[in-house]
Amino acid sequence: MSKLVEPTPLMRQYFAIKAKYPGALLLFRVGDFYETFLEDAVKASKVLDITLTKRANGSAASVELAGFPHHALDLYLPKLVKAGYRVAICDQLEDPKQAKGIVRRGVTELVTPGLSFSEAVLDTRANNYLAAIFFDKALIGMAFLDLSTGEFFVTQGNTDYLQKVMHHLAPSEIVFNKKQEALWNDFGQSNVHTYAMEDWVFQFDYAYGLLNGHFGTQSLKGFGVSDYPVGIVAAGVILHYLSENEHKKITHIRSIIRLEEHQYVWLDQFTVKALELMVPQQVGGTALIEILDRTVTSMGGRLLKKWLLFPLKEVVRIQKRLDIVAYLVEDPDLAGLLVSHLKQIGDLERLIAKVAVGRVNPREMMALKRALEQVEPIQAALQATGFSLLQNFREQLHHCHALVASIQHTLQEDPPILTHQGGIIQPHVNDRLDALNKIIYDGKNYLVELQQKESKRTNIPSLKVAYNRVFGYYLEVPNAHKNKVPADWMRKQTLAGAERYITEDLKQYEEELLHAGEEAQLLEQQLYQALVTEAISYISPIQENAKHIAQLDVYLSFAKQATEHQYTKPIIDDGKLLNLKGNRHPVIEQRLPVDKTYTPNDIYLDPSAQQIIVITGPNMAGKSALLRQVALTVLMAQMGSFVPATSAQIGVVDKIFTRVGASDNLAQGESTFMMEMTETASIMHNLSDRSLVLMDEIGRGTSTYDGISIAWALVEYLHNHSRYRAKTLFATHYHELNELAKELPRVKNFNVAVQEIDRKILFLHKLVPGGSEHSFGIHVAQMAGMPAMILARARAILAHLSQVGGKVGKVDEKIENLPKEQYQLKLFEPNEPNKGLSDLKAFLEAIDMDRLSPVEALLKLNEIKNMVTNCNK
Question: DSSP alpha helices (H): ranges in 537-585?
Answer without folding.
Answer: 539-565
